[in-house]
Amino acid sequence: MTQASNSQTLTALRDMHVTPRDGAWAVNALPLDQDLPVGTIIGDFQIESLLGRGGLSRVYRARQRSLDRTVALKVTLVREEHAHGTDEGRTMAAVVHDHIVPVFSEQTVGEFRLLAMGFIAGPTLAEFLAEQRDTHNESRTSFACRTIRDLAQALAHAHRLGVLHCDIKPANILFTPDGRALLTDFNVAVRRDGVDGSNHPVGGTLSYMAPEHLAMLTGRSAPATVDERADLYSLGLVLFELLTGTWPFAESEATTDPLSAAAQLQAIRLASPVRFPATAPRLAPSLQSIVQKCLAPQPADRYRTADELADDLDRYLTHRPLRFAMDPSLRERATNWVRRHPAWTVTVVASVLIGALAIRFENNSLAPAPAERASVNGPISIAAARHALEWDRRGCELLTHRRFEDALRCFDQAVAFNSQLAPAHHNRGVARFRLGHFSSACESFDRAAELGNTTGLLFSHRAAVRFALGDIAGAETDFTRAKKTASASELAEVLANILEFETLRAATP
Predict the structure, then answer these.
(1) How far apart are CA 498 and CA 478, in angstroms?
(2) CATH fold of 31-118
(3) Are 321 and 333 in contact (CB under 8 A)?
């Protein structure tokens, strides 16, 4: 099979939506004979444009005449809806959430069931992926994690109410103009609260199904094996696509026959590891761990709840240790630790105090003047001392904006003007650490200590560097000194840092 035909087969597979119809499985069934023309009035609604076609319905942009508002109107033939056996309107009304498309009303007009929902002006995630598939950067990674975290919170809400979505995919995720993600299309959702009598999934999109969902379709497992963790598997696939723009499994050879395809996909997902593409930017080990936990072949190895997934994604976004997935990288954990406890919060205060004493001196240019630069241990002129303080202050400001390379250049200038300014060496170490220069960061912290900066936070941050370098004994020694030398204002943070270090050490193989 050629590469082009492989791509076409995979595209068809990803769009393969299966639903039970007359006792058999129908693929991409279109129950409506034709689209409703623009201007058609049906019930309280006037059709304005076609938004999309689904397996059992059409979705239109429409004007609700009685309230003079724009809605998304889902139109389904009543006979198809009855054969399908779901009650989408009641289900969506039961799961009101900021990240779920709201439902306004449901009514039957002749042969049609009309479901009026909030009109979301933004694109679907599928459209976003089609336009941005080759764009990868740090901001996209953050966007992906925030989006999936928000959707996981919405799923957690639905799951607590006994609702399984069963068809999570990019086409069922919409964005508002301000970038808020909303989950929609509960057409094949299952309610396990006894409201509609459903107790197992009845459809979905094959390529986004968990292995146990695929096995249920082919009769290889009982419906009871499909639970909330199947939705998390689907959401994990969406997360993978968002992060990498690719697909985690080699599935392009799968047949387009739905039952055979389900069996093949199940076998591939049970046996194949998740493949992170070499062409995309390398994901942080903790983020890879989150994805792998979502896509574990066995449900018992996945997140137990959507709340757990949301929590880990939030922890990743805020540079905290993961709680539920493995946190495999010692270096990444140590770096995140320093990100949460930057040393400049103390040293900038010292710089400001010293700077206040220097304001009486004349204001000279900051341009480096060779005569003003001090030797390593020589005398420091007043002008050089002031320049050093100003460069150190600028560097601290840049640290707050995460401009680490620019900050490091400022601290280098500060040290060039005054090699004996301990706070500048301390801040220089922080900038080097944030850039991953761990050995040179440790040298900067050593120099700061030699110059008399023996604060509790200095020792606790040097401990983090030693931890990142694998010097566990050195880290322990510095944490002990940090506890002994910490001032009253530092003690709470130092103790918190020590507690976190003990937690990380216990989790390190």
Answers:
(1) 10
(2) Phosphorylase Kinase; domain 1 (3.30.200)
(3) yes
Q: Which amino acid is at 410?
A: C
Query: Which residue out of 44, 150, 167, 478 is catalytically annotated?
Result: 167
> What mean pLDDT is predicted for residues 232-249?
94
Instruction: List the one residue out of 167, 59, 170 whose CA is nearest residue 117.
Output: 59
Q: What's the CA gap between 175 and 126, in Å, rounded?
A: 11
- Residue 442 in this model has a pLDDT that exceeds 80: yes
Phi, psi of 421 (to 5 degrees): -85, 100
Per DSSP, the three-state class of 70 is strand
Distance CA 380, CA 383 (A): 8
Task: Confirm whether 301 is a catalytic residue.
Answer: no
In which region does residue 179 sit, left (phi positive, over 0), alpha (psi from -120 to 50) or beta (all else)?
left
Please state whether 116 falls in left (phi above 0), alpha (psi between -120 and 50) or beta.
beta
> CATH homologous superfamily of domain 125-328?
Transferase(Phosphotransferase) domain 1 (1.10.510.10)
Distance (Å) of CA 321 to CA 58, 234, 336 = 45, 24, 8
In tens, the pLDDT along 276-293 reads 887 666 788 899 999 999
Exposed, middle or buried by CB within 10 Å (0-12, 13-18, 19+), for 245?
Answer: middle
pLDDT of residue 31: 41
